[in-house]
Amino acid sequence: MFSEQLAVTSLAGRATDALRPASEAVSELAAVAGATWRRSLKIRVVSSTVVLSSTVVLVLGMVLQAQLAQRLIENKTQAALLQADNSRILVESELGTVDPTSASLAGRLTTAVDRLTNPDPSGSAPTTAGAGTYEPVLVDGGGLSGEAGTGQKIGPLEDVPAVLRSAAERGALAHKIITVKRGPTMVTMLAVGMPVASAGRTMQLYLLFPLTAEQRTLTLVQSTLVVGGLVLLVLVAGIASLVTRQVVVPIRQAAEVAERFADGHLEERMPVVGEDDIARLGTSFNEMAASIQRQIRQLEEFGELQRGFTSDVSHELRTPLTTVRMAADLLYESRDQLHPVLHRPTELLVRELDRFEALLADLLEISRVDAGVAELHLETVDVRGTMARAVAAVRAVADRAGTPLEIDQPDDEVLAEIDPPRVERIVRNLLTNALDHGEGHPVRMTLAVDADAVAVLVRDHGVGLQPGQQELVFTRFWRGDPSRDRRTGGTGLGLSISLEDARLHGGWLQAWGAPGQGSAFRLTLPRSPNIKLTSSPLPLGPDDAAWNTQDVLVPDEAVSEEAAPNGAVPDGVVPESDEPDPVVRAGPGHQ
Amino acid sequence: MVRMAARVLVVEDDPAAAEMLSIALRQAGFETAVVSEGPKAMPAMRELKPDLVLLDLMLPGMSGIDVCKAIRAESGIPIVMLTAKSDTIDVVLGLESGADDYMIKPPKTQELVARLRARLRRIDAAPPEKLSIGDLTIDVPGHQVSRDGEQISLTPLEFDLLLALARKPRQVFTREVLLEQVWGYRHAADTRLVNVHVQRLRSKIERDPEHPEVVLTVRGVGYKAGIP
């Protein structure tokens, strides 16, 4: 078995050598195998079982074989010793009368050996004792008085090992297992040596028992063990596979059910059969699913209620507001007929009604977002047109405030799949915000585009943001400086809604600001809804030349992109930044 | 205009709002009649034969949508919806039920009047003119559209929309321009209005509305007329 393994190993070694130029393919294969190993519980269980079982089978087989071999040798030795004893008696009786000096010694020896190999036809001599055939060797060891032996010998004395001969010459009975050459093959034999007492001479008789039969038996047992072991391993692998299947199949089913559940199919349940552990898994899973479904239903109901409430509030408030609005409009139109004292109140009435309406609209929008019912209506449009509409909407405010509005946009059309009213609203909010806080300094709007995204940067040079404020700009109803004059009378919800609009698009809305240096808001939108934003075509920060001369760290494009690992940020949440101090970002990520 | 003042049927359940609407519309030179319940709208329409219906979307008895459908089943009279609900689904549902235009409550009086006037506008003293768009023929003074001599019935709004496109066959109209020319919007507004009406128009005039040949979409821009 070992030699087999060795052969396999060396074969594998050679194969590896041959494949070395294609080591990439090998490593690829290894990777695939590794992946399969990691992914398939079944393969892991089956291979572990097979490896462990083969170890057990191997050890058992080796012990069994060793035991068997030992027992066989023992039996053979016992039989051989018995046979040797019989042979000694026979030879002694044959040689007992030999004249020590007789020249016919050789002839007598031959006769004795012949008696051993060709037993007496009368059958009185016990030639065999279950020890099988043997080769006798008879040696004349010399006279008892110490004279040198004649060296006469019968049989293959050269095969008898020296240890045995010296033992026999000392007069002891000994045996040993040897391997001798017989013709072209090597034969393992059990050699037994003993002294033979004859008239005045010491002789030694050696019997060589071939162990061929025993070896055959052992080989048979070995091959039986190997075949049996292999069959057992295959069976074990099959059984392990079957058993694992019983466990793995329900687990895979459970995984599929869980995936479908996660995809929103809340009706999915695991089939529960019996009362075993798998069934318990199924029951627990189903209970969990039912509980989640219940809670989701509840949330949906709450959302539905909130939406209904929103809708009701909308209708209930808007109908009386219609009356008030139209009455106010009528009063305003005919204010010339009113007492001069009433002119200003009428103006205020109309203006505040505008604010009231805007606030109501924003409130409804934010509650719609909160209820999760806000939907995108995507259209492929030229973003420049959307920008132009937003600019047109705030142009009057800008003119009134005397704030120059600069627009920097590509000459080619900028197509993107967006919800135009929402994007227009975002940009309008950003512009309004910039005009509100720009202190009359120029407000610059930049539009840029790359393969994946469009970005709009609205930059003002007003009071900017105090440290810590940048975390608050997107907060509902937050106001930077309540004491400051407001030109547009924003609702305080504009930036919050804009952030939600950006998120709906899978885009980002990010703020930068520093005290005295103004602020910048950057909107980045994917050009189509299936693009995941990783970077923005525009840097966020004090990028304009006027501010480069200031003692401010200016992040260039690369720094900005590097410092904002935007790809890792989900759902348009504004990424944290570790840019130097003057550059801060703000967004819900900080809230 | 020598013509009699246009008559507007106001369908509104809130008495104060209905009264105020009447006052404002009369101030603007319209004649008004008020109906406060949905089921009464149809009989009043048959009886009074108004020039335009101003319809509140949420009405007791019968929803504004159903009233709108009922009116559309009988006539192409301009319908302007007045709705408290600004959700897209509500707006689109209203437009799809046949309204020509909609305004979210509360409307600014000027804006409302401008929209109503735009719906009531007639192509006055149009020269005898025959236009073609796609494989259609438009008889402008006769307000008729036909394909191979077979007449296609369009509402005045749909006719105006088709006419606007047909008059400048090579021009691509953005939704905003159409809103201005056809609906009388002075500021860019909700372009869903255009989308819904183009769909409605296509369902009437196209051989296969999925593959329009008369009113073509120009991706990213708007619409233009098909080649005659």
Secondary structure category of chain A: alpha+beta
- Whole-number total of structural domains of chain A: 3
The fourth-level CATH homologous superfamily of the largest domain in chain A is PAS domain
Low-confidence stretches of chain B: none
* SSE pattern of chain A: HHHHEEHEEEHHHEHEEHEEHEEHH
Describe it.
Chain A has 591 residues and is of the alpha+beta class. Helix content of chain A is 52%, strand content 15%. Chain A contains 13 helices and 12 strands. Chain A has helices at residues 2-19, 23-39, 41-95, 105-117, 162-169, 212-262, 277-333, 343-370, 383-401, 420-437, 494-504, 545-548, 557-563, and strands spanning 135-143, 153-154, 174-182, 185-198, 201-210, 379-382, 405-408, 415-418, 443-449, 453-460, 508-514, 518-526. In chain A, the strands form 3 sheets. In chain A, strands 2-1-5-4-3 form a 5-stranded antiparallel beta sheet, with helices on both faces. In chain A, strands 7-9-10-12-11 form a 5-stranded mixed beta sheet. In chain A, strands 6-8 form a two-stranded antiparallel sheet. Chain A starts with a helix and ends in a 28-residue tail after the last helix. With 228 residues, chain B is of the alpha/beta class. Chain B folds into 2 domains: 7-120, 3-Layer(aba) Sandwich (Rossmann fold), CATH 3.40.50; 130-225, Orthogonal Bundle (Arc Repressor Mutant, subunit A), CATH 1.10.10. Chain B has 8 helices and 12 strands. Chain B has helices spanning 15-27, 41-48, 64-74, 88-96, 109-120, 156-167, 175-183, 192-205; strands at 7-11, 31-35, 52-56, 79-83, 101-104, 130-133, 136-139, 144-147, 150-152, 173-174, 215-218, 222-225. In chain B, the strands form 3 sheets. Chain B has a 5-stranded parallel beta sheet, sandwiched between helices. A 4-stranded antiparallel beta sheet of chain B has the order 6-7-8-9, covered by helices on one side. In chain B, α3 links the parallel β3 (52-56) and β4. Chain B is globular. At the A-B interface, α7, α8, β6 and α9 of A face α1 of B.
